[in-house]
Amino acid sequence: MNCLEEKILKDGLVKEGNVLKVDSFLNHQMDIDLFNEMGKEWKKRFEGKQINKILTIEASGIGIACIAAQHFGVPVVFAKKSKSINLEGEMYTAEVESFTHKNKNTVIVSKKFLNENDHVLLIDDFLANGCALQGLIQIVQSAGATVEGIGIAIEKGFQSGGTIIRNLGYQLESLAIVDDMNWETGEIKFR
Ligand code: 5GP
Q1: Cβ–Cβ under 8 Å, residues 78 and 69
Q2: Going by fewer Cβ within 10 Å, which terminus of the chain is more open, N or C?
Q3: Centre of ligand 1 from the C-alpha of residue 165, in Å
Q4: pLDDT tens readout for residues 118-152
């Protein structure tokens, strides 16, 4: 069992509706020592890949991506959730449906910060149905850049995202894969 799995068992809370609450260490209060271990592990798993940029999505991916970036020595760009619609021309855009908030957001990345020379590692906190990742992949493709790999902290293996993304052929490295969780008993099982 790795340190992220241990932390999930110790401090994660299973909520109704297939939601795992990890706000005491991952996406509200942040455990930087844990993030550092996660960054180290992704660096190992993506050894040999020519990565020159990390792309994540606001808000929860940003902290994780920034600590991971120190292991890769590359900048972090985050896709912003935007209400503005009149940004075409200067921005790459994608529609992303939020798993936790059940609403749709347009996410944007400035054309200044992503182009065809970029070899990108995508990072996010959770993978559920894969909407957030598919939005990020679309943005990378619009820029003519290359997705070199995808690092996820927690994949919920009982939802469809992991299968969709692996079937697209990407190297997806999830540090903890939850295959089953029960909100009534609080039990969590890993792959
Ligand atoms: P997807 O787009 O893959 O359906 O969902 C991924 C996004 O939804 C992540 O960026 C994350 O913020 C949020 N998310 C999905 N499942 C969970 C969960 O169980 N707990 C929390 N805290 N966030 C989740």
Answers
A1: no
A2: N
A3: 15
A4: 999 999 999 999 999 999 999 999 999 999 999 99
